[in-house]
């Protein structure tokens, strides 16, 4: 079946930020065949293609998006035994939290800490989505995708995906491949153990726990931060609802840089002891810092407003939109926060949501003589 190609379709209602202008051309692909047909149409018409899933991790330009915007809306969930594991193939358009809920209901462990994350399954390998000590790279076996230039089907195993923290080769090459399906290797039984401190405290320990309990605990933690979009009280009644979740990734720096951040925090009196600076060792010897902590320690408080945009009242890492917000205003606030963190700690924050629109100029760090205030 050929997907219907529409013109001038508003994109703001199709994103969680509620920003941006219309798509010049737009269609919804409800199957792999429809997606292939839409991509062939774009190639024939010479139109650039923008892929849209659940709209939870994108910022759409105020002027809109040229070419063809394809919303991937395919559905499908199938499981098969694979030795001691169960391989689950999920269509790209399946809502991610539905996938996590179904895996938990069927006693399949490996995704339970990723509950409540909005968006579609096809987007999860692109960002290597993660939370509360899990990330999809832990369980992904392969990603099936369509080459946007040729229409050929490609299958990337986990190694070929090049996963690292909030990154993959799919993210490195935006517009090159359209994810069709993702295969996960899960195991039967309880959660193997919790690695994340906040989640472990909420569960009462880091040992194995029932999947349903882990999932519900994660949802409760996310609700407390206004990060479950279907939670009671969200929507028009929650001033934090129009968000892309965490706006910046946690920066990973070398050991010397991390030591400088700790020293600055102690010397300035922001913390009493070095141990009070939240950070985590990485396997390669570097250190992951807490972006939200850096934002707040740089003078950006929860609930800060800059006109119609601001920081969430519940989570300093979430930038939120209010009535009258624009993508330009949101980017201006993001740049202000980035500059403040760099001036205070010499750390560059990287934006997590994907920009959809004309290329943005590269962000330039402010000229600070010693790298910190």
Assembly classification = single chain
Helix content: 25-40%
**Mean of the pLDDT scores?**
92
**By helix and strand content, what is the structural category?**
alpha+beta
Number of strands: 21
Shape: globular
Would you write up a description of this structure?
The protein is α+β, with helices and mostly antiparallel strands and 373 residues long. Helix content is 26%, strand content 26%. The chain has ten helices and 21 strands. The strands form six sheets. Strands 6, 7, 8, 11, 12 and 13 form a six-stranded antiparallel β-sheet that branches. Strands 1-2-5-3 form a four-stranded mixed β-sheet, covered by helices on one side. A four-stranded antiparallel β-sheet has the order 14-20-19-18, with helices on one face. A hairpin with a 6-residue loop joins strand 19 and strand 20 (318-321). The longest helix is centred in the C-terminal third of the chain and has 19 residues, at 327-345. The protein starts with 5 loop residues before the first strand and ends in a 17-residue tail after the last strand. Residues 231-236 have low confidence and may be disordered.
């Amino acid at each position: 079946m050929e997907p219907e190609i529409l013109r001038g379709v508003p994109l703001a209602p199709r994103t969680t930020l509620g920003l941006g202008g219309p798509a010049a051309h737009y269609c919804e692909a409800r199957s792999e065949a429809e997606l292939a047909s839409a991509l062939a149409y774009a190639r024939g018409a010479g139109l650039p293609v923008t892929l849209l899933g659940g709209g939870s991790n994108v910022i759409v330009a105020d002027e809109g998006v040229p070419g063809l915007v394809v919303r991937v809306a395919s559905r499908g969930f199938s499981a098969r035994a694979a030795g001691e594991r169960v391989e689950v193939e999920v269509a790209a358009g399946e809502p991610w939290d539905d996938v996590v809920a179904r895996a938990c209901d069927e006693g399949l462990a490996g995704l339970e800490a990723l509950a409540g994350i909005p968006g579609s399954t096809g987007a999860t390998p692109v960002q290597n989505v993660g939370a509360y000590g899990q990330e999809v790279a832990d369980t992904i076996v392969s990603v099936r995708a369509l080459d946007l230039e040729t229409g050929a089907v490609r299958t990337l195993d986990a190694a070929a995906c090049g996963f690292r923290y909030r990154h993959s080769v799919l993210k490195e090459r935006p517009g090159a491949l359209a994810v069709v399906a993702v295969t996960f290797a899960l195991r039967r039984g309880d959660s193997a153990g919790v690695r994340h401190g906040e989640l472990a405290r909420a569960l009462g320990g880091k040992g194995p726990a029932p999947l349903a309990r882990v999932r519900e605990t994660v949802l409760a933690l996310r609700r407390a931060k206004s990060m479950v979009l279907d939670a009671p009280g969200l929507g028009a009644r929650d001033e934090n609802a129009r968000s892309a979740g965490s706006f910046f990734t946690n920066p990973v720096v070398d050991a010397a840089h991390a030591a400088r951040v700790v020293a600055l925090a102690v010397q300035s009196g922001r913390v009493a002891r070095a141990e009070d600076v939240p950070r985590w060792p990485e396997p390669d010897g570097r250190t992951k810092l807490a972006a939200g902590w850096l934002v707040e320690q740089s003078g950006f408080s929860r609930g800060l407003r800059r006109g119609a945009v601001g920081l969430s009242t519940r989570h300093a890492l979430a930038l939120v939109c209010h009535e009258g917000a624009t993508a330009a205003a949101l980017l201006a606030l993001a740049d202000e926060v980035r500059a403040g963190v760099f001036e205070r700690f010499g750390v560059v924050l990287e934006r997590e949501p994907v920009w959809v629109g004309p290329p943005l100029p590269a962000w330039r760090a402010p000229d600070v003589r010693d790298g910190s205030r």
